[in-house]
Amino acid sequence: MGVRAGLAAASLLAARAWAGQENLASAADAEASSADRTSRVAPNYALEERFLPDQVSKLVFDLVVTPHWFGESNRFWYSYETPEGTRYYLVDPGRKAKAPLWDNAKVAAALSLLTNFPYDARHLPVKRLKLVDKDTRMRFQVEIRKDAVVPNEPKRERSQEDIEEQRKEGEMKQGEQEDQTAGTPAEKPEQTRTIYFAYDLATGKITRLDNFAPPKKKPLWAFLSPDEKTVVFARGHNLYQLDAANYAKALEKAGDTSVVEAL
């Protein structure tokens, strides 16, 4: 009886020891698994940032072609951006022909000469291309530093817009001084200005349009007809109509009581 009791006690101790080791092993495995799982799901923000829209846009360029049709023929032009820069093409569907609109290297050289600022063929600064003069020339604009000295640029008289811009700059500088006094970083104004050029499609010559006055921006409330002779706008859940003369008066002076509107 004593031997059996001793064997039973020994078996019980052995079982308890085995169970304890098993529990320790399970706890260790669980801890290792948890640590491994944590390391696997740790967020990689640096990698994620590479796929944000503003970052991807630097890697992915144009994917589609947008035709800009001529008004006097069936031809159109389009631009296409690649890692090598933006290229411009002229297409004649009737003849099934496509050719470069211009030579980027020659355009860059001409702009460098006319602005006294170096440009290269891969980074042409041209913006807002538009066919003018019955599709014989392509007008575009270039942004340059406001204080840039352009060769042979005529000195123009100050317009009302220049005076208003100078007033805004004065207010902005005053605001900068107040922000600096308060310890707030000052926001710098945009220090650029726009000059206009025209490219002759027949000769390839680029001319700087020193006396060109850009048209005023169309107000958001106005919807112009294709021939720009009629304007429609909404007010108070009603539609109104203006002819070209009254539309010009409305643009010249807001609230002009002589403007004739038609329902």
How does this model look, in words?
The protein is α+β, with helices and mostly antiparallel strands and 263 residues long. It folds into 3 domains: 55-147 and 191-208, no CATH class; 161-190, no CATH class; 217-263, no CATH class. Helices cover 35% and strands 24% of the residues. It has 6 helices and 11 strands. The protein has helices spanning 2-40, 45-49, 53-56, 104-115, 160-182, 244-252, and strands at 68-69, 76-82, 85-92, 97-100, 127-132, 137-145, 192-200, 206-208, 223-224, 230-235, 238-243. A 4-stranded antiparallel sheet has the order 1-2-3-4, with no helix packed on it. The protein has a 4-stranded antiparallel sheet with strand order 5-6-7-8, with helices on one face. A hairpin with a 5-residue loop joins strand 7 and strand 8.
> Going across the major beta sheet, what is the strand order?
1-2-3-4
Number of strands: 11
Helix content: 25-40%
How far apart, in Å, are the first and last alpha carbons?
A: 117 Å
Largest sheet: 4 strands, antiparallel
Number of domains: 3
Radius of gyration: 36 Å
What general outline do the C-alpha atoms trace? extended
> In percent, how much strand structure appears in the residues?
15-25%
- Spans of 5+ residues with little confidence (pLDDT < 50)? none
